[in-house]
Amino acid sequence: MQRAMRLLEAVAAHEEGAPAKQLAREAGLALPTAYHLLRTLTHEGYLRRERGVFALGPAAEMMADSGAQQKRRGMIGDVLEHWRDAIGVPVYFAVYREGEVRVVAVADTPGSPAVEEWADFRQTAHAHAIGQCLLSQLDEESRRDHLARYPVQSITPYTVGDDRVLLRRLAATGRMQPVIERQEYALGTVCAAVPITAGTTAATLAISLPVHQADRLLPAVRELQSDVGRKLATLAFSISI
User: Fold this and answer.
1) How confident is the model at residue 67 (pLDDT cuts 50, 70, 90)?
2) Are 133 and 197 in contact (CB under 8 A)?
3) CA 54 to CA 51: how far, in whole Å?
4) Which conformational region is residue 207 in: left (phi greater than 0), alpha (psi within -120 to 50 degrees), or beta?
5) Measured between alpha carbons, how far is 137 from 123 in angstroms, rounded to an integer?
6) What is the pLDDT of residues 122-175, one digit of tens each?
7) Residue 114: is its pLDDT beyond 50?
């Protein structure tokens, strides 16, 4: 395994690939051993051989993509934990991709837990601050398409009544204005979400609080919003998760 990894590292150092003799020398392996491992790695898809040189294959590229994705998740997790600790509230990061609401990461604590996803976030975007904030960033056609797939329905007594009311609310939302939601998704909970501008992908940061702490909601979301610019590069990098 160690020898195979040394060979993979040697191959990765050459963007256009390298011949077996050069790779054996760089990996410190005898040529027959290198040939055997190169054939095995090629058979398994970790390498590909073209015109006498070996380059990284699709299996190795998938591993690299997975590693990069884990790194991005770690970065966004660190950022959310910073805000969780600084503001003292659960913090959520979500994006709208391929017609779906996707919650990428959540940072909370046992003392300040995140909202329980008792109704699928993807199907109830009309009822929670995350979904409303994401939908507000879409054009009207995309909003209507989403609501045609996931119709407005009552989640709590406070949920928006119908799609016309919701569409009017979304259209009236300012470009960088926080979206406030009070017990529309979960009784006893108030939430706020701020839009994130990063390329063409709709994204949002959100916080939640128990309803008896509702007076903290606006100051907390304003504090979050004021600090977003400092972390925008990390958020933009993480959107591709």
Assistant:
1) very low
2) no
3) 9
4) beta
5) 17
6) 999 999 999 999 999 999 999 999 999 999 999 999 999 899 999 999 999 887
7) yes
- The strand ranges marked E within the chain are 47-50, 53-56, 91-97, 100-107, 179-182, 189-198, 201-210
d(CA 222, CA 235): 18
**DSSP 8-state assignment for residue 18:** B
Measured between alpha carbons, how far is 213 from 236 in angstroms, rounded to an integer? 31
**What was the pLDDT predicted at 1?**
66
Within a 10 A sphere around the Cβ of 6, how many other Cβ atoms? Answer: 18
Q: Indicate the length of the chain as a whole number.
A: 241
Q: Is the pLDDT of residue 32 over 70?
A: yes
For 42, 53, 175, the CA distances from 8, given in Å and listed in that order, are 11, 13, 48
